[in-house]
Amino acid sequence: MFARSPVLNQSGPTEFVFRVFTAVPEFQALLFVLFLLLYLMILCGNTAIIWAVCTHSSLRTPMYFFLSNLSFIEISYTTVVVPLMLSNIFGARKPISLAGCGAQMFFFVTLGSADCFLLAIMAYDRYVAICHPLHYTLIMTQKLCIQMVGCAVGLALYLSLQLTSLIFTLPFCGHLREINHFLCDVPPVLRLACADIHVHQAVLYVVSILVLIVPFILISVSYVFITMAILRIRSVEGRRRAFSTCSSHLTVVLLQYGFCALVYLRPQSSSSVDEDRQFALIYTFVTPLLNPLIYTLRNKDVKGALRNAIIGKAALDTD
């Protein structure tokens, strides 16, 4: 497509450092504790969903299969970012090598893209379940579900490899460069290049359209049909349950796509640098945390499975 071999052997070993959130020790300690607690909550919440889906036969349906895959991606996504971020909050900033920065960017873009594709797949699953309930089991077979997840991950890997490889053909001026961010994201790294980046920015927009705009259009179309089908349901309770099932997914979609679009699809300017870092905190911490909270607090099946597991574990411990 537009790949080149990444050139990592430039004049001297280029390294990057991340800009600190604050130089005040008290605020550093507060941020460290806050981010660590959020990270642990993300790990525990998403792991609980995966465990519940894998151990309870009642949850072995396409919807929960996709939900467990989404939870796994969220865990991996935050793990790529947060540990390194925490290690740079205190004391002297630890440099990251050019290869290390490229690796973090590759996995971050891959997992973020797979997350967006999977949300679109989940919207299709809800469309089939609500608009074609009698044919749901015939359409959403286990084979098709696995194929859709595999295609989402494969496309994410391909796009991320192309984008990352292209960016790291650029020369970066100087030995130690400061990234105005807490991770090696594409826009802040591009700003450090000492070469023309118009082609690279154009490629970034193309990838962003494929990852954000196209899936969002598919999700929007799915929800138009879903809404029309729900409004035809005569039972008030039936409409309420249908809307409740879809609103959880729609909440995550709007947060994920909205803030990602603000970072990757708006024109880059010096005034947007700090805003990008703030927006990135939303889809690094808030969205992965909302995923288990929304789907467990608003889903009777998942809550029931977790409750039974906790009661069963307590009963075993008392024996």
From TrEMBL:
PROSITE patterns: G_PROTEIN_RECEP_F1_1, G_PROTEIN_RECEP_F1_2
Transmembrane segments: 29-52, 64-86, 106-124, 144-161, 202-231, 243-265, 277-297
Coiled-coil region list: none
Domain of life: Eukaryota
Subcellular location: Cell membrane
Membrane-topology annotation of the record: Multi-pass membrane protein
Domain G-protein coupled receptors family 1 profile: 45-295
Protein name: Olfactory receptor
The species this protein was found in: Myotis lucifugus
